[in-house]
Amino acid sequence: MITKAEKTKAFIIETVAPIFNKNGYAATSIADLTKATGLTKGAIYGNFENKEQLAIAAFKFMVKSLMKEIVRHMDKSESPIEKLLLISDFYRNYYMYTNKMGGCPILNIGVDANNQNTLLLQKVRTIIERIQDQLASIIEDGIEIGEISTKINAMHTAKRIDTLIQGAIFMAYTMDDDFYIKDSMNQIDKMINEELRA
């Protein structure tokens, strides 16, 4: 059973996550957090050691929600090659999906934390490494069952796919145009079908 304290903590995280995501760590004030939650500063800091701990919890919450959706979409197929195509398919609608969250949490928090918060930046890097490891694992599974060419370096390809995705997200948000994402997903599909397939 969830305690009242756990419910309050979860409420704070869910409420402030889009604010941190949209405004960034430095630009989010305690006044923003108290206004959004309707709680006092003492109530917020009674649940979190400091603003940094709350920002990390909020980032983890946003990424977890996002990853859950990607995994749900990927689980439509058991085939590694199809899973890769389902990833690009998911990202085709990513711009609209993340707009209501205040943008892409990995990109937003990564850029924001790069020069301002080493601990938060480390959390972003860990998530990026985990994503690339999962992509590499799918590619390795494909090589193992003969769907993907043995000439492919799984980690290099995983990093390339992730770079194309993150670069496209950056351009889409900077230019307010999802063409960049849709076009990059077409390029990823082409790479999967022409270079990766065994």
Folded structure, characterized:
The chain is mainly alpha-helical. The chain has helices at residues 4-23, 30-37, 41-45, 51-74, 80-92, 94-99, 105-114, 118-144, 154-175, 179-196. The protein contains 10 helices and no strands.
What labels describe this entry?
198 residues; mainly alpha; 77% helix
DSSP strand (E) fraction?
under 5%
Structural category: mainly alpha
Q: Point out poorly predicted stretches.
A: none
Any idea what the radius of gyration is?
A: 19 Å
| Overall average residue pLDDT | 89
Major sheet summary line: none
Note the overall shape.
elongated
Kindly, what is the distance between the CA atoms of the first and last residues, rounded to a whole number of angstroms? 50 Å
Count of individual beta strands: 0
The percentage helix is: over 70%
Count of helices? 10
Query: Would you list the SSEs in sequence order as H and E?
Result: HHHHHHHHHH
Give a short synopsis of this structure.
By secondary structure, the protein is mainly alpha-helical.
Question: What order do the helices and strands come in, and which of them pair?
Answer:
Blueprint: H1 4-23, H2 30-37, H3 41-45, H4 51-74, H5 80-92, H6 94-99, H7 105-114, H8 118-144, H9 154-175, H10 179-196
Helix pairs in contact: 1-2, 1-4, 4-8, 5-8, 5-10, 7-8, 8-9, 9-10
